[in-house]
Amino acid sequence: MFTNLRADLEENVPTLQRRGWWKTFRQCLASRSMRALCLIRCQAWCFRHGLPTYPITWLLSECFAIEISKRAEIGPGLHLPNPWGIVIAPHVTIGARCHLGADVQIVMGPRFKQGPILGDDVFIGDCSKVIGRTTLGDGAIIGVSSVVVSDIPPGAAAMGNPAQIVQEADQQISVAA
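User: That's the sequence. What structure does it adopt?
Assistant: Structure tokens below.
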């Protein structure tokens, strides 16, 4: 729990190394992201150790409108810039250093027993949905308000409903003047 929480701190609190522990602790208490992440990590720890998770689940729901299954696997360094309205279903795997915007939903489809798998360093924009047994490769970028229903290769950018790949990993974005 504390290893993942330390990685979350390093991802969410800039200048962590230059501050003392007291200033870092105060900044964590003032940060909505860190309060939500502490509850998420505490929920996972309680589940792994056979302790009740209902009080923490209730706090996440009431304070942040977040519903995260205790059976979801979330890697270290999760970044939630605006932790509001996030839904993560059971059997979802989220890699290290992933960035989830507000109102993101990562859910299983009606016919699937396994949820989506997110690689490391995945960015998912606000109001996006990842549905079914899909895989988002390392470094994938999902645009705002997108609906992902198929696999996205590593390093690719996708957007739209349904999400279409707009940039492959080896392509350069050219901006027309």
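Helices lie at 2-12, 21-30, 32-48, 54-64.
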